[in-house]
Structure formats: C-alpha cells, structure tokens
Design goal:
Elements: H1 5-45, H2 49-63, H3 66-81, H4 87-112, H5 116-124, H6 129-160, H7 171-182, H8 185-216
Helix pairs in contact: 1-2, 1-4, 1-6, 1-7, 1-8, 2-4, 3-4, 4-6, 5-6, 6-8, 7-8
Length: 217
C-alpha cells in the first residue's frame, strides 16, 4: 500500500485547525478545573461533611470512564435541566470535570508529601498559619506536584480525542470526516497520530525529568 504524502499536505491546514481546537479546549478545561480542584483538595484535607462530599465528587468522576462523562454531559444534562448544550460546551464541561477530579488528587498528594515535622516545627516557632502555607507547605508541594501535573497534561490531550464522539470538530473528528470522504484513512490518521506524538512525547520526557528531580529533593 502506497502512502500518499500529497493527501497529508493537502489536508494539513484542516488537521492543524482541529489540533488548535484540541489545545484550546484542553487549556480551557484545565484553567477552569484548577480552582475547582483546589476547593476539592482543601475540602478533602479537612474533616466533616464537606470532606465527605468532596471525596464523593472526586471519586465519582475519577471512577467513571471519560467517554461516559462526555456522553452524560452531552445527552443527559440537557434532558435534566431542559437546556441545550453545543458539542463544544459539553466537551468543555466534560474536560473540566475530568481535570478537576484528577488535579484535586494531584494537589492533595503534593500537600501530603510535605513532611509533617516541618509543619509542626513551623507551628512551634509561632508562624502564622498563612505563612506556614505560603512559605513551608506550598513551595514543597509544588515541587512534588510538577511531574504528576505534566503527566496529567498528556493524559488530558489523549482524552480530548474522545470529544469527536459528541461531534466536537477537533483533530480526530476532522480526520474521521475527511477520510470518510476520500478513504485515505492511513494517511490522515497517521498524521493525527504524529501530531499527538510531537506534543505528548516531549511532555512525557519532561514529566519524567521533573519526577526524577523531585525524588532527589
């Protein structure tokens, strides 16, 4: 079977436009998910009903397949609340739920990684709780979170390919539509895979480097 590079060149602008859509949705989902993840993380670190609620929300979304989350948001939410959601809107909500639930666990693990002895020593020295968080907990937690956060970014990019299942015109969707018209599946999906590889492989290497450094600290 001959690989037709002319097809890849011909439809590369369309694939790049879809890839830009993918990156924008991932960035927006992560940006919205971060403050939600912080609230969930702080709630899970506390005791009481709020902690149990945050644990329930986090565990629910982390336990569900990403495809089910997207389908539920796109098909079920409009039925329940009597509203209309565009594929992009539903995809953004789905990615936000995925990001918030997973990032809350990353944040919680990073905070838990800070030695308790250092926090207790800061309390003993009479430091205000605000300074303990800003000068003791957060700097060390950020170092512990960096590697897992970059790894999560690669996972989010992979999950974004599922948005094509609800009609979001991202890269995979566009390749599916075009290849369905000209039957050039080999060329177009190879190009899509190459685009993902170009972005995800360096990020994976960066994540491994951060994790190696954090293990030495």
């Amino acid at each position: 079977m001959k690989f037709d590079f002319a097809i890849v060149i011909q439809f590369m602008p369309e694939i790049l436009a879809g890839f830009l859509q993918t990156l924008l949705l991932c960035f927006a989902g992560c940006l919205i998910g971060i403050p939600i993840a912080v609230l969930l993380c702080l709630g899970r670190l506390d005791d009481g009903p709020y902690s149990r609620l945050c644990n329930l929300i986090t565990d629910t979304f982390r336990s569900m397949p990403e495809m089910i989350i997207l389908f539920w948001v796109y098909y079920c939410v409009p039925l329940i609340f009597d509203l209309r959601l565009s594929p992009v809107g539903a995809g953004l909500i789905g990615l936000t739920c995925y990001a918030a639930s997973n990032l809350s666990e990353i944040f919680r693990s990073g905070i838990r990684a800070v030695p308790k002895g250092q926090v207790e020593a800061a309390f003993t020295l009479g430091l205000p709780e605000r300074d303990i968080w800003l000068k003791v907990v957060v700097p060390q937690a950020l170092r512990a979170m960096t590697g897992p956060f970059v790894t999560f970014g690669t996972s989010l990019l992979k999950v974004s390919g599922l948005l094509s299942s609800i009609g979001v015109a991202e890269m995979t969707y566009r390749a599916t539509v075009i290849s369905g018209q000209n039957y050039k599946y080999l060329e177009l999906f190879t190009a899509v895979g190459a685009m993902y590889f170009i972005v995800i492989f360096p990020l994976s290497m960066l994540a491994q480097r951060f994790e190696l450094k954090s293990s030495k600290w």
